[in-house]
């Protein structure tokens, strides 16, 4: 017996994956997709084709790079290209350069020589050339400067003898670049956080550093010169240290036992003196002999009037030189502590050092730490450098900059002085630095620090929160509370805040966890997001970014080079995974996003083989909302757009040399072409042309569950005999029972001019469905042309056979 059924599949993000809490929800079988390849899930309903990626540039020398975001403001946002020992910057869709220089001539020679009066370039500089008329082979490319003269420079290795003759115009700009000490591998291990125009960087093998934006086109990087700390616990052994002088550089520090190694260069040593043991407290109306020393408020002063005098009611408070207080002159001597930085290693017991200036401007060591007769046990070694290594985690919370996860103290958190991010002065005042070690039943290396309602401390084996204890009390050195919340363990991949949740990739890199605050438990709760489609991240995820505009999407990089998306609108119960293979067999290696107008701009670094060489293209995903003109639809990868006077020759495609490209010309598809000499020739002239790799977008429904009289329809023979597909702003699509049997749907009718592009279509398409009798009964919709496609619903008419 057969039962006829008409089924509507509405694509809603919360229903894309029917697997829920370890079971199959059959009610969602007809409202979900089995496969979404290069299709985005719209939280408001429907699935739409992923926009293409626009070519922004190549990585330096084709090397592997990590992309990071730097957001000074919505208008001043940058993408950092971090490669082996360098950083370059992208802004407004292209490489950031210094002020450009005007080109007035270019020779056809080997090498090509460019004339640009007073260009100011030096040999070895990298320059970006654009807007050249005539010799267009040089446009939108970077070159190395050689053979510089006052008004000319050569393009190293460029033979322009076969190029088109230069006619006019063009500019050359020096590419902004910063030199670093991070290797190509280490840039992927960097942790970072930002405050205004400074990005703080942490890596387990490097001193914490900061990248500073000094102008819109100028950046500097330097190791952080911390003020007074942080330190390990004070020495509790019998080993003593003493310094050879109270001030200056090139002093020596001598230990009574082996303390130092050559790796300690750059490490701090802090000396402390108990003033109460050596000096009397200053008193009012007391007679003081000349050269007598007293203490007041943690400082030591020497009476230097020259004769015995009686003090008044005002104590000495200055912190340098001499000041007169009534009849007495007091000269500042030193504080109750001081510190040095090790500058040279002599032996395990002797190092050279420089006395540092502390937070209140004092650069003097305590008297009773200087000279062999004052060898002291009251010393502390710096918590960074030497055998301790460096912190791997960094983050802001409550106006403090926190570091954590050193090799020597993997569970210790170091917080700065309040509102003084590079000051780690220890103490017990509420504003002093915070130093705390997590007490746990196992070693949990801290990998990330993420500010939220509390500071989230994410480790290899558990997730903790750090706060000021009960209520809304701030964190202080004497008021800090750490609680273990969950025990998932976090990978090295930097987590993100998405809405009011933390999204992390678990330590095995195959699960994505949503960490949210739960009122019932008054703590954090972890939800596995991959349970909705656990086959997609299988194999491992290697990078992640959060795109907030125009749709809420978490983007991931898969270890096999795919781009993976997760539409994540928890407030509207819209969560759905989608898969994205990049055109041209591109391998995605890194991802980031920055604000750009109405949409966040998602950048990817894509490994490709072009003309026999391995390169990395820096590309960004075009806007989802392109308007209502099909000519503006951009659905090619690593593509470029020509938008000017009608022409049949498109140049500037050197990054796709020798590649077969897909073309949309004035809103109409065009036969594929192979790029030669950085150019292609069209069959017809066009004024707006998009050129790049083609890619297919596919929607495949789940097994049909409908029409059964006797139980469920799963496993029973079915036949779909008709389908109505509901589209929005679509041109060109194929539909059928599987990818080998698809029919192209007609979108042009007799009323349309044949010399015009087919306009965007919104509405229903009735399709005869040539399926047979089977147990699955799926519907496949595919778009393989460089055109838009949004599917709102699929209405299936089918028979289910119970007998």
| Helical content (DSSP H or I, runs of 4+) | under 10%
* Helical segment count: 1
- Using the alpha-carbon principal axes, give the shape: globular
- Cα distance, first to last residue? 5 Å
Strand proportion: over 45%
- Largest beta-sheet details: 7 strands, antiparallel
Strand arrangement, largest sheet? 12-18-15-16-17-14-13
Low-pLDDT sequence parts: 1-7, 12-31
Radius of gyration: 34 Å
Give a quick summary of the entry.
Strand 20 (191-195) and strand 21 form a beta hairpin. This protein has 803 residues and is mainly beta.
Would you spell out the secondary-structure blueprint of this structure?
Elements: E1 2-10, E2 19-20, E3 23-24, E4 33-37, E5 39-41, E6 47-49, E7 53-58, E8 66-71, E9 77-83, E10 86-91, E11 94-95, E12 101-102, E13 105-106, E14 113-115, E15 126-130, E16 141-146, E17 152-155, E18 171-174, E19 177-179, E20 191-195, E21 198-203, E22 206-215, E23 218-223, E24 241-243, E25 249-255, E26 268-272, H1 275-278, E27 280-281, E28 287-288, E29 293-296, E30 299-303, E31 309-310, E32 322-325, E33 328-335, E34 337-345, E35 350-355, E36 379-381, E37 393-397, E38 400-404, E39 412-415, E40 434-437, E41 446-451, E42 455-459, E43 463-467, E44 481-486, E45 496-498, E46 501-505, E47 512-518, E48 523-528, E49 541-547, E50 553-558, E51 563-569, E52 574-580, E53 587-596, E54 599-610, E55 613-621, E56 637-650, E57 660-665, E58 668-674, E59 680-693, E60 697-701, E61 717-730, E62 734-738, E63 741-744, E64 761-768, E65 780-783, E66 790-801
């Amino acid at each position: 017996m057969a039962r006829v059924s008409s089924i509507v599949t509405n694509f809603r993000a919360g229903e894309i994956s029917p697997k829920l809490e370890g079971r199959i929800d059959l009610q969602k079988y007809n409202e979900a997709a089995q496969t979404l390849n290069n299709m985005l899930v719209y939280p408001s309903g429907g699935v739409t084709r992923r926009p293409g990626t626009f070519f922004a540039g190549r990585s330096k020398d084709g090397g592997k790079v990590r992309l990071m975001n730097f957001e000074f403001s919505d208008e001043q946002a940058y993408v950092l290209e971090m490669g082996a020992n360098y950083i370059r910057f992208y802004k407004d869709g292209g490489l950031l350069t210094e002020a450009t220089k005007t080109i007035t001539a270019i020779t056809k020679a080997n090498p090509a020589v460019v004339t640009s009066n007073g260009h100011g370039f030096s040999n070895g500089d990298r320059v970006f050339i654009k807007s050249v008329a005539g010799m267009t082979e040089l446009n939108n490319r970077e070159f190395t400067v050689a053979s510089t003269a006052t008004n000319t420079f050569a393009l190293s290795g460029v033979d322009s003898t076969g190029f088109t003759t230069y006619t006019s115009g063009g500019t050359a700009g020096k590419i902004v670049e910063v030199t670093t000490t991070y290797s190509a591998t280490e840039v992927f291990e960097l942790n970072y956080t930002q405050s205004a125009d400074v990005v703080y960087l942490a890596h387990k093998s490097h001193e914490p550093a900061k990248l500073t934006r000094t102008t819109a086109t100028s950046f500097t990087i330097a190791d952080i010169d911390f003020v007074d700390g942080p330190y390990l616990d004070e020495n509790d052994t019998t080993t003593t240290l003493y310094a050879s002088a109270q001030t200056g550089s090139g002093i020596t520090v001598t230990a009574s036992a082996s303390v130092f190694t050559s790796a300690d260069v750059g490490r701090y040593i802090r000396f402390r003196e108990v003033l109460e043991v050596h000096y009397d407290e200053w008193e009012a109306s007391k007679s003081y002999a000349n050269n007598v020393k007293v203490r007041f408020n943690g400082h030591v002063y020497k009476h230097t009037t020259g004769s015995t005098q009686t003090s008044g009611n005002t104590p000495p408070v200055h912190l340098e030189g001499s000041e007169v207080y009534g009849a007495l002159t007091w000269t500042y001597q030193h504080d109750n502590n001081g510190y040095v930085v090790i500058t040279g290693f002599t032996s395990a017991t002797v190092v050279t050092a420089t006395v540092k200036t502390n937070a209140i401007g004092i650069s003097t060591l305590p008297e009773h730490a200087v000279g062999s007769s004052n060898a002291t046990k009251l010393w502390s070694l710096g918590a960074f450098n030497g055998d301790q290594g460096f912190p791997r985690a960094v983050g802001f919370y409550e106006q403090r900059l926190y570091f954590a996860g050193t090799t020597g103290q993997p569970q210790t958190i170091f917080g700065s002085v309040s509102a003084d991010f590079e000051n780690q002065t220890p103490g017990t005042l509420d504003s002093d630095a915070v130093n705390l070690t997590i007490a746990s039943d196992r070693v949990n290396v801290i990998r990330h620090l993420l500010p939220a309602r509390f500071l989230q401390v994410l480790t290899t084996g558990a997730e903790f929160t750090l706060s000021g204890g009960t209520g809304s009390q701030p964190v202080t050195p004497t008021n800090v509370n750490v609680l273990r919340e969950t025990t998932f363990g976090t990978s090295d991949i930097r987590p993100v805040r998405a809405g009011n949740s933390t999204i992390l990739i678990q330590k095995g890199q195959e699960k994505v966890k949503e960490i949210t605050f739960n009122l019932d438990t008054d703590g954090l709760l972890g939800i596995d997001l991959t349970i909705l489609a656990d086959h997609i991240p299988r194999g491992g995820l290697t990078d992640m970014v959060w795109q907030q505009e125009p749709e809420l999407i978490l983007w991931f990089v898969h270890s096999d080079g795919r781009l993976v998306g997760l539409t994540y609108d928890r407030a509207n119960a819209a969560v759905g995974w989608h898969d994205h293979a990049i055109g041209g067999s591109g391998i995605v290696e890194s991802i980031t996003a920055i604000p750009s107008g109405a949409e966040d701009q998602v950048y990817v670094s894509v490994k490709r083989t072009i003309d026999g060489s391995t390169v990395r293209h820096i590309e960004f995903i075009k806007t989802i909302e392109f308007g209502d003109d099909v000519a503006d639809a951009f659905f090619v990868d690593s593509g470029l757009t020509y938008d000017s006077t009608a022409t049949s020759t498109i140049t500037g495609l050197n990054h796709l040399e020798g590649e077969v490209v897909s073309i949309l010309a004035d809103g109409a598809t065009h036969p594929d072409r192979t790029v030669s000499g950085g150019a292609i020739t069209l069959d017809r002239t066009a004024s707006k042309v998009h050129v790049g790799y083609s890619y297919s977008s596919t929607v495949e429904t789940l097994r049909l569950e409908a029409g059964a009289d006797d139980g469920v329809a799963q496993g029973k023979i079915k036949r779909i005999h008709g389908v109505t597909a509901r589209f929005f702003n679509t041109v060109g699509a194929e539909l059928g029972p599987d990818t080998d049997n698809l029919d192209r749907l007609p979108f042009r009718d007799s009323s349309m001019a044949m010399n015009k592009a087919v306009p965007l279509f919104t509405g229903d398409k009735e399709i005869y469905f040539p399926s047979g009798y089977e147990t699955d009964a799926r519907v496949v919709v595919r778009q393989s042309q460089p055109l838009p496609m949004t599917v709102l619903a699929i209405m299936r008419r089918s028979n289910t056979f119970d007998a």
